[in-house]
Amino acid sequence: MHERVPAEGGDSFFLSSKGNRDMTAVYQGVDGAYSQLVLGHFLREHGIEMPTVGLPSFREMATAVAGSRADAGVIPIENAIVGTVREGYDLLAEFDLVPVGEIQWRTDHRLLGVRGAELRDVREVLAHPLVLAECGTFLSGLDHARAIPCEDTGVAAREVARGGNPAIAALASPVAASIYDLIELAAHCSDDPRTYSRFLIVRPRHTNPSNPLLRLPKSGKRKTSLIFSVEERTGSLAGALAILAERKINGDKLESKPYLGHGTERVFYVDFDGDADDANVADAIAALRTECKTLTVIGSYDAHVGEPIGRNDDPPKALVELVREIAPPVSDSPFPRVSRSANPPGTMLQIGSVRVGDGEFTIVAGPCSVESREQILSTAHAVSERGAVMLRGGAFKPRTSPYAFQGLGWEGVSLLAEAGRATGMPTVSEVMTIDQVERMASQIDVLQIGARNMQNFDLLKAVGRCGRPVLLKRGLAATIDELLAAAEYILSEGNPNVILCERGIRTYENATRNTLDLSAVPVLRERSHLPVWVDPSHGVGVRRWVRPLCRAAKAVGAHGLLIEVHPNPPEAKSDKDQALTFDDFGTIMRDLDRIETWSHPQVPVS
Ligand code: PEP
Ligand code: MN
Description:
Blueprint: H1 13-18, E1 25-28, H2 34-45, E2 52-55, H3 58-66, E3 72-79, E4 83-84, H4 86-95, E5 98-106, E6 110-113, E7 124-127, H5 129-134, H6 136-141, E8 146-149, H7 153-163, E9 168-172, H8 174-179, E10 183-186, E11 196-203, E12 222-229, H9 236-246, E13 251-258, E14 266-273, H10 279-291, E15 294-302, H11 319-326, E16 349-351, E17 354-356, E18 362-366, H12 373-385, E19 390-392, H13 410-423, E20 427-430, H14 434-443, E21 446-449, H15 457-464, E22 470-473, H16 480-492, E23 498-502, H17 520-527, E24 532-534, H18 536-540, H19 543-556, E25 560-564, H20 582-592
Parallel strand pairs: 1-2, 1-3, 7-8, 7-9, 18-19, 18-25, 19-20, 20-21, 21-22, 22-23, 23-24, 24-25
Antiparallel strand pairs: 3-4, 3-11, 5-11, 6-9, 6-10, 12-14, 12-15, 13-14, 16-17
This protein binds phosphoenolpyruvate and manganese (II) ion.
């Protein structure tokens, strides 16, 4: 029975993931990494049944094999575009791993995104650094996207799938696409579609006698890899190479790097045809030992024969074609993605079970601020019973005075989420800073950008990079065009799920809190395909005037209303003058049933 040495440092991968299976093959990465595909292929080809386990780094993988905690491993050593993977050779040397076979694997990278994603909307590309280097030309054509290095192609694809954000894509294999249910946004992304990587399959030097890698028959073509350094003098490299040439040994690869810490000396990575057991190779190695300053024989292994594995059968897409596809839309409009012509039928959002857009009239209700568990739960039940389908409530409040109630913060967010779950309603809450975006998005269904932040462009970009729907309120002194340009920021970062909201603007009129600009509704609906809501509460600021403005907003063609409701308005910690009682809200809801919404004819956009 094969004795396993428990791993040090708490690494118990083989105990937890494989039960009592005898043999294990390890690779660096997660499902879908090229290393896993290569290792799986090698084992299948040789009829070896061994479970494969992914480890976080090449070093951990090499340590596992060297310590006989794993019976086989795989190490990349070269890429046809980028060159030697020095870490690979160095680990082979340092851990004294025994190479048994070489595989050349076509690295046919595809740009993968979530369903519904489009190439022109991609803003971030995740990939292994080697892959980023292989795809340099493609990535420089994607000038609106940032490249983000990550551990391996499997992790890149997995993160894209988990995030669900159409603005984030991964460079990975078509296999990773099917594992993580991603779609191809571009094919053949490497600088040359013929590119491939070389991998070595390795085993421990002192291994279990039943390890099937010990009994692999040698194929016709063998290769040997070495690392050496030579004295720093004229002709020393030529002398070493002459040793090979004189023995009719065909060199396959030669690459040098500085020998750090050894002056101007250099280290050479060399591969050549032949097996260390062949008489001429054995003789050459003996001669090199005398000629070279240092020499590490990595070993001899079955060479890959024929074309690299994997095919690239679709004709490579011309770069110009790709660049045309990904160029920003050519338009004179300052908001090409938001304008009606980008989506003439109009955008329909699905938020939980709630639809938002043409033909729908969505009522969102709740307090200005979440104040307590009891307050938000009682309001949620009351508004839901009376016809609201979404729940609002501020947890981070933009208050004019720093001494006014600032909201309950994350506690308020949790309470709002709890009330949403209790009533089955999706939730809406305001994000004030970039660092709140991700955490808010993990708990709340719609991120509100408040009037005071409508032109906080960095915040707009941050919600644009997140997949959650955004409720964008019109700024206190913003024109309709400025509201549309603010929405464009969000769409241009890859998030198409935006709802515009008219909430009143500053005018000279001071009889009302703001002037609810209902004329913005038909204008926005004509200029943009995005849904338009109205917030009469902040628009008028006085409880008894909210009702007529709700009616007017529906009549003028709003897709929904945002209404503040409180169990006890005079006690509300913010916006008490405009909050409705539950009864007021019920009356308005009944009233609205009798109002017909104006269905705007589709008007061509100028
Ligand atoms: C709110 O909805 O409570 C709010 C603060 O809105 P606005 O940003 O429109 O003032
Ligand atoms: Mn408010």
